[in-house]
Structures are given as C-alpha cells and as structure tokens.
Design goal:
This is Glycoside hydrolase family protein. The chain is mostly beta strands. Helices cover 12% and strands 35% of the residues.
Amino acid sequence: MVAVTALALTSGAATAAESGWKMGKPRLTTPWTNQVSPTNALPEYPRPQLVRENWQNLNGVWEFAGAAPGEVPPFGEKLAEKILVPYPTESALSGIQRHEDFMWYRRTFTVPRNWNVGKDNTLRINFGAVDYKAKVYVNGKQVAAHQGGYGAFSADVTSALKPKGEQEIIVGVEDRTDATWQPVGKQRRVPDRGIFYEGASGIWQTVWMEPVAAKHIGTLGMVPDLESSTLKLTVDTGGNSGLAVEAVVRDGRKVVSRSKASAAGTISLPVPKAKLWSPDSPFLYDLDVELKDGRRTVDKVSSYFGMREFGTAKGADGKLRFTLNGKILFLQSTLDQGYWPDGIYTAPTDQALRFDLEQHKVLGFNTVRKHIKTEPDRWYHHADKLGLLVWQDMPSMRTGGRPPVDAQRQFKAELKELVEQKKNWTSIVGYVPFNEGWAEWSREETGQVAESVKAQDPTRLVNAHSGVNCCDSLGDSGKGDVLDWHAYPGPAKPMPDAKRISIDGEHGGYGLEVKDHMWFGEGHAYEMVKDQATLNSRYVQNQRDVLASAQSCGISGSIYTQITDVEHEVNGFFTYDRQVKKMDFAQVRAVNQAIIRNADGSGSGAPDPGPGTPGIGGVHAYKFDEGTGSSAKDSVGTAHATLTNAQWAGGVEGGALAFAGNGQADTGANLVDTAGSYSVSAWAKLDEASGAFQTVVSQDTGRDSAFFLQYSGQDQRWAMSFVGLRALSPEKPEVGRWYHLTGVRDAKAGTLSLYVDGTKVASQNACSAAPSTGHTVIGRGQYGGQQVDFLRGAVDDVRLYDRPLSDAEVATLAKRD
C-alpha cells in the first residue's frame, strides 16, 4: 500500500482549552479515554481499500447546536457549543453528552492550493457514517443528502466552493432513534437495563476530504477465484467510457502480476500459486490500480485483497458443513456489540478499535459476529489483517410490532447499501438480515430478502434469520445458506438440512459482576455466577457441549455471548471498560482451539437408538379410570403416578384427570430416555387458551423440562417442544374440546414432530438432547429449576413409548372406539 500523508487540520495543534471543547464525564473510562483530544480524534486514513495519497482529515472540534424541525441552516453563524467529531452526541467524548432529535454541525476549512481543485480536480467530502438523516451544505449550498445511520456517503462540493480562503460546511442531522421505524440496532432513547442501550446520534465515523479527478475510480469490486487463481476486478468509473486500467498485484515488494485492460467489464488479474487467506495464515496481497485516459494517468488508488473462498460440503458423517478454501472449518465466534462506555458507537482510538479483535485471537476464536451494528472500515481492515472471519448483521428496526410498508422499503434499501459497501472485505463470511424476528414483517419476504442479498453477493453465505427459533420470529423461511438457532445457556443444536449448514447463533451469556467496573453499578446475565472459578468452569463445560453438538449434530459454528460486558449486561470476557479480564484466558483458549481442531465433520452422528418395544400399548400408560384415590395406575409398567391437586373427571373413554392450574401427576420415575427416540401421546382439553403456557406431559431435568407436550401460550397453539424449539399446530385449540396429541422424537432422523388428532401437523429439525434423569410428570413443566406451566384442563390416556411411532400408529391411537 502506498504511503499516505494526512495534511494537518486547519485548527493546527490547538489544545482542548483553546478549542473550547471539554470532554464529558464518562461513567466508566477505558485505557484509551484520556488519549482522545482535539488534535488526534481518529487521525488514521479511514478507507483502507481505496487509498489516495492526498487527503485531509476533518475530524476534530466542530461547532454544534440543537435544532428545531424545519429550522433554516445557520449559515455564517457561530454555534454556541463545541463537539468533538466523530463521537456521537450522547457520548462523553463528544463533549455534548445528550441526545438531540435535530442538530447542526458547523466548521470551516481551507482547500490546499496544490490540489488544483477547480482545474484538474474536484473536491469530495466523505462521511463514514451519520445517524440518521443528514443534509450537507457548503457555503450555503446543499451538496448532499443521505438517509441511513450505517452507510458511507460523499459529495462533490466543487461547485459550492469560493475561489479562495475559508469555506463553511454545515451538516444538519435528524435522528429520532426508536421513536421511528428507522434501523437502530440496539440503540434506544431510553436504555432498558437489559439488552438495549444508549443511543448514538449524529456524525459517528470519520469525515475527510480529498481531491479527485473528474474521471476517477469510484469503487473497486474484488472477487477472488481460487479455481482459476485470479482476482476478478471491476472498476467503477462513474460512466466515463474509453478508459483503461493498469493493475499491479504485489506480494510485499515482489510484483506478482501486471495487467492492462479496458475499464469496462471484469478484469482477471493473475495470482499464480496463490497464498490462501485463512485465520491461521491471514495473507493479503497489495493491489495498485491506475486509471488511464490514453497514455495519461487520471487517477490511481491502492488497495488489497485476500485469496479465499467460502462454501459448504458434506463431512464424513454425511452432514453439510461450512468450508473455507474447500476444507471444513468450524466457525468459533463471539457476539460483538461494538459499544464503548466513553464513545458509545465509536471506539475512542484506532488502537481501541483493534483491541477487541486482537483479544478474539488471544482467546482462541476464529470468527466474530458483528451484532446488529456496523463498524468503520478500519475495523474490517483489522479483521482482515488479524485473520478473523466476520458474520455481518444488518442493524434491525426497533422491536415491538411489525413495521409499515415505507419502513420495510427503507430497511431493504439500507441492507442493499450495507452489502454493497462491505462486499470487498476478505473477512466477511456472511450476512445476517434478521435477528430473532425483530421487526420482521413476513416470513415469505424474509426469504425473498435472503435471496436478494445472495444475488447481490453470491460469494458469501446468507443467514436469513439468526435465532429463527426465538422470540418474535415468524418462522423458518427455508431460504439462505444457514439454519441458525439461539439457546441460553445452550448451546443450540440445529441440524443442517440438504441445502443449509446449521449454526448455534447465540448461546452462553454467563455473567459475573465486578465491583467498580459496571455501567449501572450492578448487572444481569442469562445465568449469573458467584466467582471467576465458577465462571471458568461453566464456560469450559458449555464449550465442551458445543464440541459434542458439532460432532453429533453437525453444527458448523457457535457464537458465545459475548466479548465484553455492555451496559447492564455483565456476561463478557472483559468488563465494559476493558479494564478487567473476567475469565482465565488460557482455559478459554484451550477449549476453543480444541473445538476448532475436532469439529471436522468426522463425527459418527446420532447413534442408532434400536427398534424399541413393539406395539401401541406403550411402555407406560395411564388410563385414569380409577375415579378415586391419590394415585393413578401405570397399566403397563410399575411407575404409578402420585396426584397433587388433581380431580377425577369424565374422559374420552371412562375417566380422566382434571387440573385447575396448580396440580400434577408425578410418576416418580424417569420414563423416557431423552437422549434417544421416544413418543408421548395423550388426550387433552383446555379450560382456557390464553397467553399462558400449559403443559400436558413433560420430564424434569432439574433445570428445564427435557420435552414439553404442551399448549404454547406465546403462539396459542398445541406444541411438542424443547426449550427454544417448538413444533406447532397450525390452529389455536378450542376451549373444552378433546384433542389427541402425540409428540414424536426421532433421534436417528433428528426430528421433533407433533401430531394432532392423528395427523402430523409440524416437524422440526432437532439434534440429540441431553439425557434426563428427572421424573416424568403430567400436568406441569419445569423451567429455570421451577415448576411452571400448570395445566388448566383435563388429560386422558397418557402413553409413553421408547421409539418413534409411525404415522399409521399415531392415526390408530387417535381413533375413538
């Protein structure tokens, strides 16, 4: 890469006092907080894949003022406050430390005479990102408008410039955060002491200017092709025709190849005997590109690329898995939110920006999920150089409800912009349009969005919906390259299908409070622990479960929550201020590396569970025909059930048990081998069908039921469920009507199915479950170690089987004599 020289800011070496800027008071300080000043606000070159020699950084102290809707831009007026760009207004580093729905930024600049602007060159002003709507004015003339808080944009301001002297730039910004349907990620106007955080408004990435020829290189498109050992290069010349490109590929100082071709179309640059990029060997080639008009060079840029290829292949166990450069690789990742206590959305320094990524490598990870946020280009550049693969999320709209049509269109436009601007980074392995159903509006359109992203960038994977089993999800669209479930503490265990690999998209979340290093002075997590030793042991065991899931279920990756604490969440490897390591990093690295080594697709898959006991009588059965007493007879075995708060009632045939929301029939034994295949059937009717869960049959584990044959209050449907996974009936049950329910777990096929009245109505892809030694129970479930989901209704003819029943057998069971 050519040497880059940044010209000094017009403010010179002004101190904070001279500039009028004063840092706010952060609740927590990072090791880099006090390195920030008006003279070194992210001074590094901001666009590493399209570098020009001449540029000037416009970060630093700007004038600032809150504004009213429709207010006229304050041309020629000094604004009352000072803000340090590019830190969000809500951050301590900005010096403002509050939110404004509308705001003005103002500063002056001068154009170096040797740039020949207005003669040989134009002047472009570039913005890394402004949240959310921005209008840019130079000397009173609007030169740009952009909507979207995560995309870069630029403006040719040449026509607005004065012949000489100081030039005025004003940026007007509107950011209403979650008061609208704009994509916001985790930002909230009022943080919830949960999983949503402070807002980050205004200019939050570097602003800079550069002289650019009228005929110039707008963007580069770079696609490595390992089969032909070439780089497919496209050069955007802004519609200018008749131009040529000269490109040089270099390995350090060594020239690998030189190519010259028309700038129109795709150019194949030879990369003979290519050195492949991988997490273990993140080799990058340098690329110099000159744009020629005849013999004259009109523009030249430097860039870089890595030779690598993403794909899928079946392992020795027959399950579809992720491949890097044709070889199976397990994607061992953390969830990375990209938040900072001093800069919120913006890391205080470039060293800080790189730090979290470096620690991923120290901890033995090879992948990072950039969660519902984007980052400045330099973050991806660091990932490229360090050898970290990146799952790139699309920042979501707010949660709660479904977005209107205009918001849907804007979301898709911003997603298209994201893919276009990120698709050259070597490290990005795939895109994630939706998370847990947040602001999802249509399952079918989720699939269409995934297909659109794939068409836009076919070289990467598309994970249509991370956590498709969770929360507000509208269900699996069946599209994309990845099936992704969430489970806390997990791990999630989705099995790949014929066309999609599977990953555990979020798990873990073990929390530990560290005094004096918490945003709120206290915190929460998915599971809190008492000390570091417990945290270490819980993490290691959880990761061993990840390896077991990779070997038996075929998951191709896992994502642990998370690299650092964030605000009220205290489940990081580091505290939020990056001051304290919360785990033994050597232990973490050892287990992480063991997963990557051993999750190679050679697992034997699910064991053959055997044929089980023939017949439809079951291995245990409860007819409930006694009509009296405090126990129900097991008519096949000896596991008679003890009754609590249960009433004898009339059933489908003979008697039944009725429950009023506080009773159970405890068999006193472990009747189902939940690590193998089994079936559970029962007649059931509900006295109410509200938003509360109600369980017909389950089996305790001490924490959560190993399975639930249930009414899912969240979905208002019958369900056969594991925690985080439900096979659901298509319709809401009628109150007072008897239904025949059968849940079938087929361990060999890896499925969980629900039958209603003898017909299969749903089936879910589900890997092996952990063995359970708890009691089989009728009338309630277990969750978080508590007895929950008590039935309000009646149960008759409960049967349990040690094998998966066939469709015909279930149909027979559901017939009334």
